TrEMBL record:
UniProt cross-references to InterPro entries, sorted A to Z: Isochorismatase-like_dom, Isochorismatase-like_hydrls, Isochorismatase-like_sf
Protein name as catalogued: Cysteine hydrolase
GO molecular function: hydrolase activity
Isochorismatase-like domain segment(s): 29-215
Chain ranges passing through the membrane: none
Length: 221
């Protein structure tokens, strides 16, 4: 991703280099793929982010490269089971009654919307973590932090959808928990290009690095 000069200047002033990680230790790196479920990627679902379908090949590429080097691939899935209770404010005030009901239905763990599209290369050795809200690392949201620590992970690569909501929320919390955290530009998708770029600009300014799939692969050791 090409950043505007003023962004690069501020990043360089803060940390001395534009991209702080020359090499990535695959054995302690996880590719955390957020919410590429049918509900968020396929036509006809309320949560569809149409551009997400275009990143499947890049997600598969990075997952395969990291597996080959001995790294960890984690697929994050959102479940709306019980969300009208544990996330009642969101469902009561941030969604219309119609949208709330549809989210509860289509993102329920027994619905086809909860499943992963067959075009994604989910392998038996990969890990799957179910989350309850935007960030997989918010308190009580999921077991992701424990899963990463059990694998000895110190670096987190973030892909999936949507860039500026669940992906950015998870990435921010990863950074706050002291993981080296990289948003992978072409393995992420938002509803509009503006939202995607705006999110990554802000991430670069304050939180962590942004690399492409090819740039990540080049750094894997």
């Amino acid at each position: 991703m090409q950043f505007e000069p003023w962004i690069e200047e501020r990043v360089l002033a803060r940390q001395g280099v534009l991209h702080p990680y020359d090499q990535l230790d695959a054995a302690t790196t996880a590719f955390v793929v957020v919410d590429l479920q049918n509900y968020y990627t396929q036509p006809g679902y309320q949560g569809e982010c149409a551009p997400a379908r275009a990143i499947f090949a890049k997600v598969n590429q990075l997952a395969a490269a990291l597996r080959a080097k001995g790294g960890t691939v984690v697929w994050i899935k959102t479940s709306a089971d019980g969300a009208d209770q544990f996330w009642s404010h969101h469902h009561r005030h941030m969604l219309t009654p119609e949208r709330s009901a549809r989210r509860l239905l289509e993102l329920g763990s027994g619905h086809a919307g909860f499943a992963m599209p067959p075009a994604l290369d989910v392998q038996p050795g990969d890990l799957t973590v179910v989350k309850r809200c935007y960030s997989a690392l918010a308190p009580g949201a999921s077991e992701l932090d424990a899963v990463l620590k059990a694998q000895g992970v110190r670096t987190v690569l973030i892909g999936g959808t949507v860039t500026n909501v669940c992906c950015e929320s998870t990435a921010r919390d990863a950074m706050m928990l002291d993981y080296a955290t990289i948003m992978v530009d072409d393995a992420l998708a938002a509803v509009t290009p503006y939202e995607h770029v705006h999110s990554l600009n802000n991430w670069m300014l304050f939180f962590g690095d942004v690399l492409t799939v090819d740039e990540v692969v080049e750094r894997l050791a």
